[in-house]
């Protein structure tokens, strides 16, 4: 009996003292999730950046050309076609754009952060809304990687002064926020 107990202890001891080995790596799984370009893959991370954008007519533009407007502040609205607060923000900006322009000249651009499969919805929205400001699609979703907060939660609005310095940013939109936006545009213009 003691011999049997001794063998059992030896047997169990042998299992518990084996050298530790690294667990096997799981087999790679094909992912359907779209991956954004790494942050350091983009050469220019300063305003007005150098990011490829696409308009609703499928034409490629570069952010360095569409954002910078000498002598004017620039408002950049980031949105998604599926985002209801984004739609409310864009509508409020459209309603106020001309009156604000009459008081303070500024530049405004709306940039969609939609995935590629939503590009047709982007085109439809831009053609339907007829905004008085241009709209583009960040086809590689680079802005979310280089802007403060990584565009976590949309809509997000950024205001840059005439020299390209960010003066204000805001996430989300509630009715009435547009009056705050206009105050921040005036501040960025120096009036």
Keyphrases for this structure?
alpha/beta; globular
In words, what does this structure look like?
By secondary structure, this protein is of the alpha/beta class. It has a domain at 72-186: 3-Layer(aba) Sandwich (Glutaredoxin), CATH 3.40.30.10. Helix content is 36%, strand content 17%. The protein is built from 6 helices and 7 strands. It has helices at 2-16, 63-67, 84-103, 119-129, 143-146, 177-189, and strands at 52-54, 60-62, 74-79, 107-112, 135-137, 156-160, 166-171. Strands 5-4-3-6-7 form a 5-stranded mixed β-sheet, covered by helices on one side. The longest helix is centred in the middle third of the chain and has 20 residues, at 84-103. The radius of gyration is 26 Å and the shape is globular. Mean pLDDT is 82; it is low at 4-40.
